[in-house]
């Protein structure tokens, strides 16, 4: 006997049969697309040893590792600075002082609306900043403004009575935010924060447009400057899984954090001393 919920009805035998057919048809389509893609790769001789031979050289491997290290370095700087900027702008937007709140709101909306590539190019070309600081600055301004809204939304997601109770105890606003609201808001906003960091990691690939020697820039050098039948597709097949793997690792970490935060806190058993006879209450026998 099937049960129903407030959101949907449990599918019956006919619905389950249709779902299985839909899943089977989708699987066939996906396999057909993969097979067609592989056919094109083999037909254009993308798996010949000539195209893949550059990756056997130590110099090429060192170039890729150096580019990967530069990508991770730019991401680390951008992640830390974005979190700091987001917290600062969120604090300003939650402030009781109207001018500070207006300035923070203006900065958040401006940097959220501005394309990342435009900011990176402006900092690199107009301000004549070096590639790494220009890339990190552009990523920080954009992702920091987005994270500011994530932080503000997380604070507002806490029940209003929590803050009111803290104020009733005589706590100042800074104490209420630090000890009451922020710790509870972390549970709601942490998965979104990590997901935004995934965006920052992917956007580090924009650095090759300003000649920053990151991972994609290294692949571009290999694909365009070597006399090995121009191995563009092999370079893509090498670089793409690494980018995808790093982003999936961060996404998995976000999922793990969300699952961990949903668990009920475990209490530790405490040894209790046996009860001793004490003074009887008045009137007790």
Word description of this protein:
By secondary structure, the protein is mostly helical. Helix content is 73%, strand content 0%. The protein has ten helices and no strands. The chain has helices spanning 13-43, 49-52, 58-93, 98-113, 116-126, 131-157, 160-168, 173-203, 215-225, 232-262. α3 (58-93) runs antiparallel to α4. The N and C termini lie far apart (59 Å). The mean pLDDT is 82.
Approximate helicity band: over 70%
| Helix/strand structural class | mainly alpha
Rg over C-alpha atoms, rounded to the nearest angstrom: 28 Å
The rounded distance between the terminal residues' Cα atoms is 59 Å
Catalogue the unreliable spans. Answer: none
Task: Give the biggest sheet.
Answer: none
The secondary-structure element order is HHHHHHHHHH
What is the β-strand count? 0
How much beta, percentage-wise? under 5%
Mean pLDDT: 82
Q: Give the CA-based shape.
A: flat
Note the total helix count.
10
Descriptive terms for the model:
285 residues; flat; mainly alpha
Task: State the gist of this model.
The protein is mainly alpha-helical and 285 residues long. The chain is built from ten helices and no strands.
List the helices and strands and how they pair.
Elements: H1 13-43, H2 49-52, H3 58-93, H4 98-113, H5 116-126, H6 131-157, H7 160-168, H8 173-203, H9 215-225, H10 232-262
Helix pairs in contact: 3-4, 3-6, 3-9, 4-6, 5-6, 6-8, 7-8, 8-10, 9-10
């Amino acid at each position: 006997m099937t049960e129903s919920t407030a959101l949907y009805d449990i599918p019956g035998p006919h619905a389950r049969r249709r779902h299985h057919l839909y899943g089977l048809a989708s699987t066939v389509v996906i396999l057909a697309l993969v097979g067609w893609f592989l056919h094109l790769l083999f037909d254009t001789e993308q798996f010949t040893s000539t195209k893949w031979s550059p990756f056997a050289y130590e110099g090429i491997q060192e170039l890729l590792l150096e580019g990967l290290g530069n990508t991770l370095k730019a991401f680390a700087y951008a992640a830390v600075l974005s979190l700091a900027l987001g917290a600062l702008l969120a604090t300003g937007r939650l402030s009781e002082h109207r001018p500070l709140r207006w300035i923070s709101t203006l900065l958040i909306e401006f940097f959220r609306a501005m394309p990342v590539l435009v900011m990176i190019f402006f900092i690199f070309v107009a301000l004549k900043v070096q590639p790494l600081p220009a890339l990190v600055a552009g990523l920080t301004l954009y992702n920091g403004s987005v994270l500011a809204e994530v932080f503000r939304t997380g604070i507002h997601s806490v029940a209003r009575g929590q803050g009111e109770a803290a104020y009733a105890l005589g706590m100042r606003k800074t104490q209420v935010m630090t000890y009451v609201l922020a710790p509870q808001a972390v549970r709601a906003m942490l998965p979104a924060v990590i997901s935004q960091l995934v965006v920052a990691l992917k956007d580090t690939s924009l650095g090759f447009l300003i000649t920053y020697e990151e991972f994609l820039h290294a692949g571009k050098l290999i694909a365009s400057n070597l006399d090995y039948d121009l191995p563009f597709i092999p370079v893509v097949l090498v670089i793409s899984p690494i980018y995808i793997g790093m982003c999936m690792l961060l996404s998995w970490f976000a999922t793990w954090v969300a699952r961990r935060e949903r668990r009920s806190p475990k209490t530790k058993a405490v040894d209790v001393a046996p009860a001793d006879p004490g003074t009887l209450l008045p009137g007790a026998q």
